């Protein structure tokens, strides 16, 4: 996204009294308030680990029920290490990946370019692979990656029984299981299990702090003690053991305190928002009901037209509808991702429909 358009969106969104999708953008000063909320700023910082970073690692290991948790500056780095670990321990330089997964779409194939691994398609369907598809791979893989939820398929999740069968099938073909859990926090309502129960199905789990938890940056790779030792060594080799990372760690702590307990409420309200949006003329919503607090919305207009209408609505009515429109794979439609967070909780179904009508009126 061009910087000037992003700035227009942020400025318009910040000026609004009501926000349907997303959270109010924060200035750097407001971000510092999040850091302060995450811990005692009079304590010592981290020095290549320790301090707030170690405290965050310990907290995540407790939340997920794992032996270790290692902080990384980026999820891309953490996921490379997870796949490298599987290949090194098994001697199999291949991993089962979804073509819509984060490693294939958003990491510039780092697993292949930097680690020399080969990706094997786990399925071509817009969902995570089934147990039968894994059993039919036809070649050995060291790791099977499951993204919870699969963002680029519409934030979709398997049912709990399906997820259990998937992990059993992966181990039956001699592979370890890695959960790309950048958004695992909001997956538990649909799966009907706790974070610890979900994480227990995997050999390693990556979690993010800046997406659902609204942190500054950072990620954790969690798993066994052996994985933890390996991850710390390779984090250093990749340049991820920074001198100090306390602002990101403390902001993550604040997000765990503030946002994590509210995510089930966001997920529940997303159903109300999705049903209301589906009433708009020509609208398409997927999945319905949403599996998490995020889902996709299509409207029958060009992306540029919708983007300008959203900005006009924000200027005229101080209402933020949704940004980030893209011309979609459905002819004549544009698509966006709706994120139901704290600001949307005050919206009734009638409010959503009324705002949608105002948006369409802006288009004319």
UniProtKB/TrEMBL annotation:
Keywords, in A-Z order: Lyase, Pyridoxal phosphate
Cofactor(s) recorded in Swiss-Prot or TrEMBL: pyridoxal 5'-phosphate
Domain (Aromatic amino acid beta-eliminating lyase/threonine aldolase) ranges: 27-292
A Pfam entry, by short name: Beta_elim_lyase
GO terms of molecular function: lyase activity
Family, per entry: Belongs to the threonine aldolase family.
Protein name in the entry: Beta-eliminating lyase-related protein
């Amino acid at each position: 996204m061009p910087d000037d358009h992003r700035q227009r969106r942020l400025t318009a969104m910040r000026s609004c009294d009501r926000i349907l999708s997303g959270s109010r953008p924060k200035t750097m000063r407001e971000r510092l308030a999040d850091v302060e909320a995450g811990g005692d700023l009079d304590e010592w910082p981290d020095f290549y680990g320790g301090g707030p970073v170690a405290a965050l690692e310990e907290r995540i290991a407790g939340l997920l029920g794992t032996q270790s948790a290692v902080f990384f500056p980026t999820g891309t780095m953490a996921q490379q290490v997870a796949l490298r670990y599987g290949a090194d321990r098994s001697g199999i330089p291949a991993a089962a990946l979804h073509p819509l997964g984060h490693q294939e779409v958003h990491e510039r194939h780092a697993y292949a370019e930097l680690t020399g691994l080969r990706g094997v398609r786990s399925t071509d369907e817009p969902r995570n692979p089934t147990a039968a598809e894994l059993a039919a791979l036809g070649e050995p893989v060291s790791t099977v990656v499951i993204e919870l939820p699969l963002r680029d398929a519409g934030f979709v999740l398997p049912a709990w029984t399906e997820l259990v069968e998937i992990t059993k099938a992966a181990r039956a073909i001699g592979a370890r299981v890695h959960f790309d859990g950048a958004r695992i926090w909001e997956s538990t309502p649909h799966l009907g299990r706790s974070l610890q129960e979900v994480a227990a199905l995997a050999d390693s789990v990556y979690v993010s702090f800046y997406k659902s938890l609204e942190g500054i940056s950072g990620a954790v790779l969690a798993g066994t003690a052996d994985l933890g030792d390996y991850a710390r060594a390779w984090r250093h080799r990749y340049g991820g053991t920074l001198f100090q990372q306390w602002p990101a760690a403390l902001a993550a702590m604040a997000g765990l305190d503030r946002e994590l307990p509210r995510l089930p409420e966001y997920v529940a309200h997303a159903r109300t928002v999705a049903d209301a949006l589906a009433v708009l003329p020509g609208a398409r919503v997927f999945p319905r009901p949403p599996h998490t607090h995020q889902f996709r919305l299509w409207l029958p207009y060009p992306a540029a037209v919708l983007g300008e209408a959203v900005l006009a609505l924000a200027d005229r009515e101080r209402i933020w509808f949704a940004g980030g429109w893209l011309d979609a794979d459905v002819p004549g439609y544009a698509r966006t991702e709706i994120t139901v967070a704290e600001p949307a909780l005050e919206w009734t179904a009638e409010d959503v429909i009324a705002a949608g009508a105002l948006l369409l009126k802006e288009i004319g």
